[in-house]
Write a structure and sequence with these properties.
Length: 365
């Protein structure tokens, strides 16, 4: 394998099960050292893609190149797989000590014990499990076991690191802690990584580049900002957490500012769309500010200000989601402290505001 080549590249990749196409990726390349996160709903084809990359599954059509080389024979596949490590949702540890679990792959490769000890102890320190070294792995908590699994996968110094929803089965506090530590480790090691998840927060925290997959197809790829704040269509917008999706028509424009009519109301947005264009308007709930009528704290930079009424309040831990009727449906996300300070209740009148730059506009059709 030529190490100067692209670490992972697929061409015309397709997979079918019983005549049903479950994966179709015409072209995709993963850059050296990047963390590429593949997000999408359950059953969208993410794990199938990962198994094909790991050469655990042969595609119905297309090619997989690893560092510019397409492994075909059994010998080539085994050689290629030795350069990869994969972590699954369930840790799958041996009934042995934490230390011996992490050291397993190194011993298979016949590394010297001194080198093994150095690698294992370094990874245990990085993943904060040094105190568990002598513990039996089968008696660990879910978070501890997954830390051991990650350490074992990284110990062999893979050139390609594959992760299939490694945090999905953990409770929220454990998931948050491990997500932070894993992000730091991936940034430090700069291993070419493909990370599969359906969790939007994981994608934002971990990714250098994100792709959204649904029904086996990549709908959009780019940086977190591009995918989450500039979704290509309604389906991507819904999945990445855009809760206000409105249909309208551009009725006027001045320089880069377009005025869009929606249900008799007019929204201003920075957009290249032209007068007469039928458009979709996307707005994230965290970009909407809610104040009380007559309150002077409405942001002067917000070009869009609408009176409205709270239809529903949903409590989400330290956050509160507001379902608003402003002549069109609008969602806002504020802190619980802010909601309490404002004394918000269902049926109450409010003012909702948002910047023209917060609105993302896409032509329909």
């Amino acid at each position: 394998m030529g190490q100067s080549a692209i670490p992972v590249e697929v061409v015309d990749l397709e997979q079918e099960y019983d005549g049903r196409r479950v994966l179709s990726v015409p072209a995709l390349a993963i850059k050296e050292g990047e963390v590429f996160v593949l997000i999408g709903p359950n059953g969208s084809g993410k794990s199938t893609f990962l198994r094909i990359i790991n050469l655990l599954e042969k595609p119905s059509r297309g090619k997989v190149f690893l560092f510019g080389f397409e492994p075909r024979t059994r010998s080539e596949i085994l050689q290629a797989r030795r350069k990869m490590s994969m972590v699954f949702q369930e840790p799958l540890l041996f009934s042995a000590s934490v230390y011996n679990n992490i050291a397993y792959g190194l011993r298979i490769r016949r590394e010297k014990e001194g080198r093994i000890r150095q690698k294992v102890e370094d990874l245990m320190e990085k993943l904060e499990i040094s105190h568990l070294a002598k513990r039996l792995a089968t008696g660990l908590s879910g978070g501890e076991a997954q830390r051991v699994s990650l350490a074992r996968a990284l110990a062999v110094e893979p050139e390609i690191f594959l992760l299939d929803e490694p945090l999905a089965s953990l409770d929220a506090p454990t998931r948050e802690s491990l997500r932070s530590d894993l992000g730091g480790l991936l940034r430090e090691l700069r291993i070419t990584s493909i990370y599969v998840t359906h969790d939007r927060t994981e994608a934002i925290v971990l990714a250098d580049r994100i792709a959204v997959m649904n029904e086996g197809q990549i709908l959009q790829e780019g940086t977190a900002d591009e995918v989450f704040n500039k979704p290509r269509d309604e389906l991507v917008a819904s999945f990445v957490g855009v809760e206000t999706i409105l249909r309208g028509i551009v009725v006027s424009r001045m320089e880069q500012l377009a005025e869009i009519e929606i249900w008799g109301k007019r929204i201003e947005a920075v957009s290249s769309c032209q007068v007469g264009d039928e458009v979709l308007v996307f707005l994230r709930p965290e970009d909407v500010t809610v104040t009380l009528p007559g309150d002077g704290r409405i942001r002067s930079s917000a070009r869009n200000v609408f009176p409205g009424r709270i239809e529903k309040i949903t409590h989400l831990g330290y956050l509160v989601k507001l379902h608003l009727d402003c002549g069109f449906s609008l969602r806002a996300l504020i802190t619980r402290v802010s909601a309490t300070e404002l004394g918000l209740t269902e049926g109450m009148g409010i003012m909702a505001s948002f910047k023209a730059t917060a609105v993302h506009v896409v032509r329909r059709g």
